[in-house]
Amino acid sequence: MQVYLVGGAVRDELLGRAVQERDWVVVGATPAELERAGYRAVGQDFPVFLHPDTHEEYALARLERKIAAGYRGFAIESSPTVTLEEDLRRRDLTINAMARGADGTLIDPFGGQADLRSRLLRHVSAAFAEDPVRILRAARFAARFAGLGFTVAPETLALMRAMVSAGEVNALVSERVWRELELALRAAHPERAFEVLRDCGALALILPELAQSPDLPLALASLRCAANGAEDAKATPQRWAALLAGLPVPDIEAICTRLRSPTEHRQLALLAARLGAYLFSAGQPTEQAAADPEWLLGLLELADAFRRPERFAQWLAVLDARARAAGQSPAAAKALAGRLDAARLAAASVQLSEAELKAHRGAEIAALLRLRRLAALAART
User: What is the pLDDT of residues 80-107, one digit of tens each?
Assistant: First the structure.
């Protein structure tokens, strides 16, 4: 039995990046042997085991054979006769198809180290075309490593286009699509994932509303501004909203329903679209927004800003990204967001006295509170 460190841990080590998790491949062993050694089986589709002490994943070397359409249409073969090179050959990109032996020796049968130096995302073999998820993964890695100068190799992009033409993308299920898109949204340059999907033709199938929209260039620029070159797993709702905010509300509803995106992502994207339309409606210049209490209060009410101040803050970040993407200076974009948040704080500070609350009911209280908020906003101008 031989054990090898494989995949992302080897890649990240060679790139000088922090290794987040380590995966292992076991060659020349059976499930029974691993279980006798104290490993716990957890894999459903193929033999994966957790180490008894580290709880890291150890997978038996395996082969995959395409037997049906889609990313689940594989027969898995795992036996002690499967070699390390055979296991590595089934992986997606050369930079993910390297291993290290117990003595530290690098095993790189497909040129992953050379592609790291060349900053190329290149497929390992023609088997790449058998799994449409690899289109999404290639796009995600393009987003993750864009800051290091990585690009998709021309031959790999051509293969991805052929996969799209062959209808492989149609077999993807919404949950897996969303999972890969959300991981891309976390990256420092998430716009690169959507550019790669656009360039290979997959975006037209996954997000046709966005792909066909004249807002697409601004949407990608907005996503770039929202990310600002930083990885952030918690900022995916704002980044999703920045990407979709220029689309009609029905299109955003359709996208989020189809992909089953989380409620927070859906609500913020819809809010950004509605507030964006309100912000530039009726010829209202944004520079004069702070001088119009009625218009300002209408915006705050539409945003539900008094009950959901945290979501309003998220929208302000989206607004800032969209404004900068449209060519507004960072200072001007920040000033607009600052004026709107100051208006929220002024209106939210209004309180009715106990006597007023006792003297009025229901709609009367709401009307009085609104008048006081209008007065507070007027006093600012």
Answer: 889 999 999 999 999 999 999 999 999 9
The pTM for the full model equals 0.90
* Residues 230, 264: Cα–Cα separation, whole Å: 21
Query: Which tokens in the block code for residue 261?
Result: 């995106």
Fold entry, domain 1-117: Beta Polymerase; domain 2 (3.30.460)
Q: Of 207-211, 280-284, 364-368, which has the strongest mean pLDDT? A: 207-211
pLDDT (0 to 100) of residue 380: 77
User: What does the alpha-carbon distance between residue 315 and residue 226 come to, in Å, rounded to a whole number?
Assistant: 11
Place of tokens 């990407």: 243
pLDDT per residue as tens digits for the range 278-326? 887 655 555 555 578 999 999 999 999 999 999 999 999 999 999 999 9
Model pLDDT for residues 45-78, shown as the tens digit of each residue: 668 899 999 989 999 998 877 656 655 555 677 7
Domain boundaries, the chain: 1-117
Give the count of beta carbons closer than 10 Å to the beta carbon of residue 251: 19
pLDDT band at 1 (very low <50, low <70, confident <90, very high): confident
**H/E/C letters for each residue in the chain?**
CEEEEECHHHHHHHHCCCCCCCEEEEECCCHHHHHHCCCEECCCCCCEEECCCCCCEEEECEEEEECCCCCCCEEEEECCCCCHHHHHHCCCEHHHCCEECCCCCEECCCCHHHHHHHCEECECCHHHHHCCHHHHHHHHHHHHCHHHCCEECHHHHHHHHHHHHCCHHHHCCHHHHHHHHHHHHHCCCCHHHHHHHHHHCCHHHHCHHHHCCCCHHHHHHHHHHHHCCCCCHHHHHHHHHHHHCCCCHHHHHHHHHHHCCCHHHHHHHHHHHHHHHHHCHHHCCHHHHHHCHHHHHHHHHHCCCCCCHHHHHHHHHHHHHHHHHCCCCHHHHHHHHHHHHHHHHHHHCCCCCHHHHHHCCHHHHHHHHHHHHHHHHHHHC
